[in-house]
Amino acid sequence: xxxxxxxxxxxxxxxxxxxxxxxxxxxxxxxxxxxxxxxxxxxxxxxxxxxxxxxxxxxxxxxxxxxxxxxxxxxxxxxxxxxxxxxxxxxxxxxxxxxxxxxxxxxxxxxxxxxxxxxxxxxxxxxxxxxxxxxxxxxxxxxxxxxxxxxxxxxxxxxxxxxxxxxxxxxxxxxxxxxxxxxxxxxxxxxxxxxxxxxxxxxxxxxxxxxxxxxxxxxxxxxxxxxxxxxxxxxxxxxxxxxxxxxxxxxxxxxxxxxxxxxxxxxxxxxxxxxxxxxxxxxxxxxxxxxxxxxxxxxxxxxxxxxxxxxxxxxxxxxxxxxxxxxxxxxxxxxxxxxxxxxxxxxxxxxxxxxxxxxxxxxxxxxxxxxxxxxxxxxxxxxxxxxxxxx
Length: 391
Description:
Number of strands: 15
Oligomer: single chain
Radius of gyration: 24 Å
Distance between the termini: 66 Å
Largest sheet: 10 strands, mixed
């Protein structure tokens, strides 16, 4: 029996310490922890038995129903890290060292209860000491996920190089079991899929959690996103500008100008001139799948830019600079206002800048990295107490 072999090899004592964990999730499954301690050099063997559980990862939804149930009473991630951080291999002749204080986990999954709905986000490069750190919230596109955005955006490397934490937010899940499809409730797109999901409450709760538990600097909370995620960035920024230091919607647009942000907010808007899903001229998407999920026409990007120029009290006359296929139009801050910046790549299509094309006939912006360009803008802006963002 493999368990007996490990107990013997580690020199652990019998019998084990047995602890019945509470059924906190009331899911009908029971969790028992058995610990054989007292082994060589502090070695131990721990067995977690889940009665009623299937072939699944504890703490996560099973990807397929055929695999059986998954308990929410425990998180496998947390239990493994709790175990790992207790143990280290010592050199043969090394003297025992004092155990260092436990540091915060720099990469972790955050789970949130948002009005009874279970939501999540992935936090990368959080500080391991008491220092506060800027936080960039990154929103995936429609039918995406936190993991997909993390893999495609390039933000991990930029965050670790520049010393900020990146937070991959995740929208409402929909579709068949086992398929990680998510979307954001912008009010006018994918409404059948997201129903009445309250993404305002989700981001309010997420930001509060990041500041309270992960040492995010409340003066340097930024938001960016691609496509549906960029649209959600616009929507949240209009409703909650005081909570953010700057935004950068990418290959996205707005549906309505009915509401205006209460305070100016630095904005970087990035689009591709060859984007067929979110055309610069607005209207209905030229992608039939997206068009069927669209309940209102897109606003033209020129009108979106002017909406923010007015809301931000930016100067009316812009500075225009072109390098290769990229044209940057910058409306500097006016009195009591902040900057509005618009970047268009004449060769770019739909997708996160610098990522690979996902289908024929569409090539995302290739002239720059979206993560690098967005951070270059964000790092220039911070919210001062009692003052509009960017001042």
